[in-house]
Amino acid sequence: MSLETLNGIMIFILGLIFGSFYNVVGYRLPNNMSIVFPQSHCPNCNHKLKFYELIPVLSYIFLLGRCKVCKKRISFSYPFFEIVTGVLFLISYVQFGLSLKFFISITFISILIIISISDIRYYIIPDEVLIIGSILLIIEFITNSYINNLGFINGVLIKILNGLGSFAILYLFKVFGDTVFQKESLGGGDIKLLFIIGLVLGFDMSIVAIFIASFIALPLSIISLIKNDNNILPFGPYLSIAATIILLCNLNLDMILQFFIK
Asked: Helices 203-226 and 236-248, interaxial angle, to 10°?
């Protein structure tokens, strides 16, 4: 077995473990709970989970998707996000190798996974995740700037300005949408999330992410409209999907324009 293959397996397993933790964070933060205490437990009967009930994916399979004590069905979202995190960590490794870009990628993906879990469950994008995530990314960009002699302006300041510009654009979209529909069209968390997307992907690709996210969300919006369903559609997960596609496919504006011109 080659070193690259071994690294890939280890990174995938690491992604599964982190994905399990992100499930906890995405569940507890919106409920104003500590991410450390209490011990992981069944939300139905409060059974405290043993170590063998906390193994990512495998525990879900061995327990047949049910709590060991009360037999209440466990949401499939838990192993789903564990697998998604593992796969995205692995793709990041394949795409960037064991480089600083890899760590920037998995930091970015981790933020997107947590806010997606929270937004899907509670329609909340926790500020704590956005703030800590932004700080970590800026530290990584400063480190990258130092290592590659990019200078603070090219390596860090421009990225921060890209994030602020992306934030401003989506805020204007919100103001326009609120005016047209006479109700809240976008949540504040979506706007703050776009700061991070602009920080990592750049201003131009953050705009592309908005359009890709809107395109992905359109079918569900139409179905909701046909059903006269007043449920709110969380936009954070769609922005996260769009941003992940752009990041891991290494898309840029020139590639997209050439695609449409052809």
From this structure: 140
Query: Do residues 170 and 194 make contact, with C-beta atoms less than 8 angstroms apart?
Result: yes
pLDDT number for residue 228:
60
Determine the pLDDT at residue 1.
76
User: Is the pTM here over 0.85, yes or no?
Assistant: yes
Burial of 113 per CB tally in 10 Å (0-12, 13-18, 19+): buried
Q: What confidence score (pLDDT) does residue 230 get? A: 58
Token pair of 61, please?
């399979």
Helix axes 3-28, 100-122, angle to 10 degrees: 30
- Cβ atoms of 95 and 250 within 8 Å: the answer is yes
CA pair distance 93, 89, nearest whole angstrom:
6
- Here the tokens at position 67 are 């709590």
Cβ neighbours for 148, distance < 8 A, ≥ 6 positions apart: 155
65 φ, ψ to 5°? 70, 20
Of 164, 238, 218, whose CA–CA distance to 194 is shortest?
Answer: 164
DSSP symbols for 57-83: THHHHHTTTB-TTT-PBPPTHHHHHHH
What is the rounded distance in angstroms from the CA atom of residue 155 to the CA atom of residue 194?
A: 19
C-alpha dist (Å) from residue 88 to 15, 154, 224, 233, 238: 8, 28, 30, 24, 16
CA 172, 175, 177, 179: dihedral to nearest 10 degrees?
-140
Question: What contacts 24+ positions apart, CB below 8 Å, involve 180-188?
Answer: 186/235, 187/123, 187/125, 187/235, 187/236
Ranges of residues in the chain whose predicted pLDDT is under 50:
none
d(CA 54, CA 241): 27
The pLDDT of residue 148: 85
pLDDT value for 251: 87
